[in-house]
Batch of 2 targets.
Target 1
Amino acid sequence: MSEVVLRTDATFGLKVKIGDEVHRGQKISTEPTAKCPVASPIRGVVKSVSFDPESHEFLVVVSSTE
Amino acid sequence: MRKIRGALTIISLILAVLTLTTICRAETALNYPDGKESIKNIIFCIGDGMGLGQTTLARMKSAGADGMLCIERMPVIGLVRTHSANALRTDSAAAGTALACGVKTNNKMLGMTADGKKYQTILEAAKAKGMRTGLVATSTITHATPASFAAHVESRRMENEIARQLIAKKIHVLLGGGRQHFLPISDANSKRNDNTDLIRQAKKAGYCYVQTAEELKNAYGPYLLGLFQLGPLNTRPPEPTLAELTQKAIEALNSKDKKPLNKGFFLMVEGSQIDWACHDNDVNNTLRLVLCFDKAVKSAVEFALKDGQTLVVATADHETGGLTINDGSLKGDNLDVHWSTKGHSCLPVPLYAIGPNADMFSGVYDNTEVPKKFAQLLGIKSFPKVMD
């Protein structure tokens, strides 16, 4: 099963949590100022969410169900 | 007789009005003094992401409902609005820029407005006035909040460039993490993309350089560079604590060396990782890190009380997590803690102040007002100021 790691600015909240099903193109962050809002490129399930302090970003791992 | 009574009434009224005017003027004078002669040093403590929920959690867990943190014992309280130029939810870069430069900018930008105009920071203005300056943080020293006081870049991610600017500016005391941004690319631990050896440059410029708590004990000022990790600090032994770093920074900045002459200092101390614990919605780590920050504030306050010419201001750049406490015992057990977000919230943050002219910091105001008040107290005339 393939996975993708999505990174999004942690200033803003997340629209997904661990275990959520996401569809292709679904936005995962509430960031209103992003020029290109982060969206899942695949259909799948959110496997993990972690905070990276160095970049001040959330790392959202989505496992594919396609 | 009636005429005399009428005249007396009018005179009494005039006297009453004059007296009231004088009292009001006196109060204004008390609240907004020139400040030039009374303040020598400013210690500005920032708990990244620390709102009322975080301090309440720490107080309840460490001392119960009737206890008090050191920060809560500071006599003057204000409330600070935090939005950035382009978002209601600020990040640390935009909030830091507001707290350092007195201007709003977009999230992620440091030391400049959204149109790219660079603004002098309050630390730079203090240094230009002949004061000593210092930055202490538990993050990399090049992270958004400390960087906002001494760097001017379009993105907070430009930590290598920020490191270069910190050393080039010759800030007297720099204590924190982030050695990886100061090492040349030839070093296996470097994150730089050039061969600039900033640690070597710093030593050549007269800095005392240290990497461990033991080395820090024997370190001396006024130029002191301490980089205790490649990345952020672990905030655990054997590293020096934030309180120890704060004490050492004060000692170095307040030393009696003649070069440069001690004309007072401006020191910023950040409890950087409260924000990170709140992004993780981690109650125990949030508690631990707020208490670490509170001990650092205590060090600053103890120095200020002895010194008598030092203003200490403690606040946050924003709140993280939307932390609330819905219930629990008076002893602080079984707290029902809720997080409303994993990101930052839009809530105003508390500000605490103690020292000469601390009363200037009461009330509700914008974060851009904080450095303007510092500038007024230090007798810095032109602030905010676009850089040449």
Target 2
Amino acid sequence: MQLIAKLKKDAISKVKIVGTKPANLVEFFEVSKNYGNIKALCKVNVAFRPGEFVSIVGPSGAGKSTLAKLLIREEIPSSGKIIVAGRDVASFNRRTLSKYRRKIGVVFQDYKLLAHKSVFENIAFALEVCDALTSEIRDRVPKILNMVGLFDRANNYPHELSGGEKQRVSIARALIHSPKILIADEPTGNLDPKNTKEVIDLLLQINRSGTLVVLATHDESIVNQLFRRVIKVENGKITQDQNRSKYF
Amino acid sequence: MGVNNFLRNWSLSIAAVVMTSLTLTTVTIFVILHFSATSATQMIKEKIDIMVYFYDETAEKEIQDIQLKLSSRFDLDSVKYISKEGAVAKWQSRPIPQNIKNLVTSEENPLFRSLQIKTQNQKTLDDVVNLLDNQTYQDKIYKVSYKENSDVIDKILRLTNFVNWAGSTLSFIFIGISVIVIFNTVRLTIFSRREEIEIMELVGASSAFVNLPFVVEAIMYGILATIISMALLALGGKFIAPIINDQLYFLNINFQNYLFDLWYIIALLQVALAVFITTISSFFSTRRYIK
């Protein structure tokens, strides 16, 4: 009897812990995006919660990158609304937009590193553009480099790095502002399996610290190993939204 | 970063600076010519007068009678008697070459006694000319200069109007070209740095952070162009202005003085114009090509 009572108590406590759903951090309401006659996205409705790890999969041209671009306001939806932390992204003026982008980390397939700047300088650049103090840069950049395992590569230039290392630099730059959201658009597209695993592990590590990670990829094999939420996109529409997390 | 932009595309930068300095020099020369022309026009208008020259045989009393008669008219501003000595003094005070001045001295004075009649009213001058054409005065008056001068005066007035028109047209054209050249130079710099700009915007750089280097670059063009233009004008003032002064002595204008006495106004004008051209160009270029 006492054992049964204990088991019941444990079950209830678990339900209490995992049963609370936080408010959505990102919401897409009937979002469509057209490029001329091409419908890249068609009335997409989806929401992401804080601390979630979401993979968006689909073939090329499905609309994955478009979703990412809309989220970072590189594009504006043709119709519908994108609400991030309660604010309509499309309504931002230039000043608000720059502040918004400091709170979102973005990682791309082509790394987008400055060839004439070292690893340290590439990461520091993200702080310099926000008028950060030199002391703050000297303090934060080494910590981030340590986190991504590139502390000893601080003075190297992008052409001296492997693909995986370049992508880690890109991730480090994306993390420098401690963003609430990290968007990775095909981050492993140019990488071999070993480097792919390293990058994905890093993204998972980042997610464990509470950052919402949105991973857009065409490689379902990566996603199948993650046991996280998976959204399938085809022809601009969400065809499946499945949470594979064993912790759900 | 603005300085880096300038040095990175040095050939384009030089083209932009040369074009802007040409514009500044042209506009400054036009402004000087405009003021000179206005001054000359004013002087000419003041010289729209009648000079009545008398024979040496004409008695002083007869000249005084004519002067008195004309002075009684309310529509004349002044009727001034100029003696032979006065005529010599006036001749010597003219801005003409010395060798020409030396043709007339107190000892050898071929100049006539005269009455200088001034008015602002064209019709009045015509009336006075008609009055003096009277047979009564034919054996006393050697010449009435008005009719001969009026054609020359008309030509000078037309010339000054043309100078104003041509100068302002040329200035607007040069300013337009300068704006376009700097616009394109900044645009090319933006294009060559597009990757860096893209990353700046992705990591949340403010508009000022992104645009400022290009504005600085454009202002550098303006500053350099001003320096070059001032140097050109200084050289022009030293070597060319004296030649122009000699040729156009009858306008009684010293172009050299205009340049050197008013250099600070000229410098301010050039800086203002340079800032205008460069900020307009860079503003539209960055607004259009940085999104």
